[in-house]
């Protein structure tokens, strides 16, 4: 099991990055959590915004004492006002990834509800015109997913699918339906950033 005390020692009171970084927000979804973690390890340097629900998922899905790669700075959901989102106004980030995203998170994002760290991050990234990539869990009527102890079949409700479609209409927001698509879109965006793309360029919408 991951040592909770180990995670609790990771703080977000670090100096500004030398250059804009990738921001990655984790929700309470276990769908493709481990493949997403592998992609994070591939990318390396980033700030991870960890919701309270996501912290629980980390413990359920991995036994690694240090589940995140060395280049990660962890930002935890510890303030009622989600104070760390102010970093988006200071030019800390070039792109936000929300992956995997629960139907609850997608619904709140679609309807403008910002009541936790992840939904606040989504809202502020949008207001700062920062490209957003969302791996929404509920994109088709039936899908198979891995629970901590078994494989299960999930049947998203009509409202869940409708909210995912609404999210596709958001400015500078790209919704992806698989880890493979997430990896492809993210690599393309990182290539744009490396080539000197404008902060608001890339990831569609």
Topology:
Elements: H1 4-8, E1 21-26, H2 33-43, E2 46-50, H3 52-61, E3 72-76, E4 93-101, H4 103-110, H5 117-127, E5 132-136, E6 143-146, E7 151-154, H6 158-167, E8 173-176, H7 179-194
Parallel strand pairs: 1-2, 1-4, 2-3, 4-5, 5-8
Antiparallel strand pairs: 6-7
Helix pairs in contact: 4-6
Fold and architecture overview:
This protein has a single domain, classed as 3-Layer(aba) Sandwich (Rossmann fold), CATH 3.40.50.1950. It has helices at residues 4-8, 33-43, 52-61, 103-110, 117-127, 158-167, 179-194; strands spanning 21-26, 46-50, 72-76, 93-101, 132-136, 143-146, 151-154, 173-176. The relative contact order is 0.17. A hairpin with a 4-residue loop joins strand 6 (143-146) and strand 7 (151-154). The chain contains 7 helices and 8 strands; from the N terminus they run H-E-H-E-H-E-E-H-H-E-E-E-H-E-H. With 205 residues, the protein is an alpha/beta fold. Helix 4 crosses helix 6 (158-167). The protein has a 6-stranded parallel beta sheet, with helices on both faces.
